[in-house]
Design goal:
single chain; mainly alpha; two-stranded antiparallel ribbon; globular; NCS2; transmembrane helix; membrane; Azg-like; purine nucleobase transmembrane transporter activity
Length: about 650
């Protein structure tokens, strides 16, 4: 037996032993067709696709200044409210700069620690292969509320209190069951579209430069365009509220007050000449080839392939050093060489303050945190459960329920509370968890593996945070493609279902928000189907005015609507005839009215007479002549039985005109 065979035999034996143990029973490994090594591999893939959050979240919130303020400035500007901003030469006060550096390191720790705890809770309590961390979008909004270096409407400490209260409200919604009641109201087409929309959102992220391949970039005319240009051809983008402040003359000195450059850029030349992008594309093709060969570990293999090559300095596709096509390569190389870092919460830990809740802006921020986090996390969790259901049939039942879902929702709120005391923005479930599910994640062991890696990153952050975005992008695109499989279950032939579903799908990537996609889909669904309901009611009212309220044939009882219900086989929808039947009946009655009263009489010699116009076919009419007359009034020829020529055949109640 060779080394490889012995290694495989060892892990096969270990997996069987773990599956039979208490651990395997608790996490339902056999029931969900999984094993320990599969879960560990899936958790590693999930972590690698979200590890960027450690540095990105810290940088975004550091822009707000955190708890730093004029009191941290040193020198002659100490205490000056403007000392927190760069001077005309772009330099920042030394004391304030030192405070920002402490805050940044503290936020790195807060991000990793809060994510570690959140993933552990999700794995142990909810047994779901879903990773949680400070949500992208929510952290940007948090930073915007506080403002650039504290220039916003809400103080950093008070914004943390809003995050804490939002987490408490989140738990209340989950425990009382109100959240599940709201979810059950969501139409099936919107739920299916949410999963597909998240997949498209993932792929869109994977195509961008900050967290992906960089194939698309900003364009002033079309918003998006083909990118992947080298650093020398990248043009910075600035967002300026007041153009007059860009170039001013004060005491004969020209001053520019450009804000920090956007993370996006436009390509002036050299599109698709970026070597880093081509390395990422090679990783994407490698994943596709391995997946088509049913190779387990295809995603993590592709990520490792790109990362190892990108860590080698000196070539055009490197992520570290001066030759990197992504700005900051020299700083990343120095950070990478540190290998180990000491975690600290000195800058942000315990900074939360519940003072200032009288501010209207704070309550606006609180409500925004709540509804965005509610829709984002709810949509993500149900989409992940639906994705798991593709591999483990029965995981999600017809009522849109999955095992331990109440605790899963509570984890989100509890994690946000913990994160607020560490100094970070709301915690949310990450859609990148789908990459781990595709790799084989089925249980909470996947989330526990992610938690383990976040714990390791507390000490080895410099290395783990150096995974290049063009190694992550291929994984996001691959998983995004797989999540589109639910789109075939949408009833595209029905406009009332198809259009809201499409709006849900397309708005998620285009607005960069899961919440806005769900809102757009629900609103369009309500408008379209609500209008149809109103039109049906209007048709019913028209029917009363045309047919009369009490007109009825001899020997029959009840109003026209009652007879219509009996003629259509009872109530089609909640005790009333179907809207389509009512509308068709009104049309037939109107046609009969236009033909005049002579057409409303039965032929000579008929056994029955029909004194009013009946626009539907009676189930128990007493003569063939009446049936023929009713068919003719509806614009259709009489039906004749093959066995008995000349006699009208029986017409089922559902055969309405």
């Amino acid at each position: 037996m060779g080394i490889r065979e012995a290694w495989d035999a060892f892990w096969e034996h270990a997996n069987k032993a773990i599956n039979r143990s208490f651990v395997g029973s608790y996490f339902q490994l056999e029931a969900r067709k999984s094993c320990f090594t599969q879960e560990f591999r899936a958790g590693t893939v999930t972590f690698l696709t979200i590890v960027y959050i450690i540095t990105v979240n810290a940088l975004l919130i550091t822009e707000s200044g955190g708890p730093c303020g004029p009191q941290d400035c040193t020198g002659p500007d100490a205490g000056d409210p403007n000392c927190v901003f760069p001077d005309e030469y772009g330099d920042t006060n030394d004391g304030y700069s030192a405070c920002l550096d402490t805050v940044r390191r503290s936020l790195v720790t807060a991000t990793a620690a809060s994510s570690c705890i959140a993933c552990a809770l999700m794995g142990l309590g909810a047994n779901m292969p879903v990773a949680l961390a400070p949500g992208m979008g929510l952290n940007a909004y948090f930073s915007a509320v506080v403002g650039y270096r504290g220039s916003g409407t809400v103080a950093y400490q008070t914004a943390l209190a809003a995050v804490c209260v939002e987490g408490i409200l989140f738990i209340i919604l989950a425990v009382t069951g109100l959240r599940l009641r709201l979810i059950r109201l969501v139409p099936k087409s919107i739920m299916l579209a949410t999963s597909a929309g998240i997949g498209l959102f993932l792929a869109f992220i994977g195509l961008q430069s900050q967290e992906g391949l960089g194939i698309i970039s900003y364009d002033v005319g079309t918003l998006l365009a083909l990118g992947a240009c080298p650093a020398s051809s990248q043009s910075s983008v600035y967002v300026v509220d007041d153009p007059s402040s860009v170039c001013t003359v004060v005491d004969g000195v020209v001053k520019t007050e450009l804000p920090p450059a956007s993370i996006n850029f436009a390509c002036t030349d050299g599109k698709m000449h970026n070597a880093s992008t081509w390395l990422g594309i090679a990783g994407l093709m490698l994943m596709g080839i391995l997946m088509s060969r049913s190779f387990k570990g295809s995603i993590i293999t592709g990520i490792a392939f790109v990362t190892v090559i990108a860590w080698i300095p000196g070539h055009a596709a490197t992520y570290l050093g001066m030759r990197s096509q992504i700005p900051g390569g020299a700083d990343r190389l120095q950070e990478f060489k540190r290998v180990v870092d000491v975690p600290t919460l000195k800058g942000t830990g315990g900074a939360i303050s519940f003072k200032g809740f009288q501010s209207g802006e704070l309550w606006i921020a609180l409500v925004t945190f709540l509804y965005v986090d509610f829709l984002d996390t709810t949509g993500t969790l149900f989409s992940m459960a639906s994705f798991i259901n593709n591999y483990v049939p029965g995981f999600m039942n017809a009522k849109k329920e999955f095992p331990r879902q109440t605790f899963a929702f509570c984890v989100d709120g509890l994690s946000s509370i913990i994160g607020s005391f560490m100094g970070t923005s709301p915690i949310a479930a990450f859609i990148e968890s789908a990459s781990g599910i595709r790799e084989g994640g089925r249980t909470g062991l996947t989330a526990l593996t992610v938690s383990l890696w976040f714990f390791v990153s507390l000490f080895f952050g410099p290395v783990l945070s150096s995974v290049p975005p063009y190694a992550i992008g291929p994984a996001l695109i691959t998983v995004g493609a797989l999540m589109m499989m639910n789109v075939v279950r949408i009833k595209w032939e029905q406009a009332a279902e198809a259009l809201p579903a499409f709006i849900t799908i397309i708005l998620m990537p285009m607005t960069y928000s899961i919440a806005y996609g769900i809102i757009g889909g629900l609103l369009s669904y309500i408008v379209i189907n609500g209008a149809n309901l109103l039109l049906d009611k209007l048709a019913e009212c028209m029917h009363w005015s045309i047919a009369g309220t009490d007109a009825q044939p001899s020997g029959a009882g009840g109003s026209f609507i009652s007879r219509l219900q009996s003629n259509t086989g009872g109530a089609a929808q909640g005790g009333r005839p179907s809207p389509g039947a009512v509308l068709r009946a009104v049309t037939a009655a109107a046609d009969a009215r236009r033909r005049g009263p002579s057409s409303a009489t039965a032929p000579s010699g008929s056994a029955d007479r029909t004194p009013d116009i009946t626009p539907t076919i009676s189930r128990n009419a007493s003569s063939q002549d009446t049936k023929a007359l009713q068919l003719q009034m509806a614009g259709r020829p009489p039906l004749h039985s093959k066995d008995h020529p000349g006699k009208s055949t029986h017409v089922d109640a559902t055969d309405n005109v």
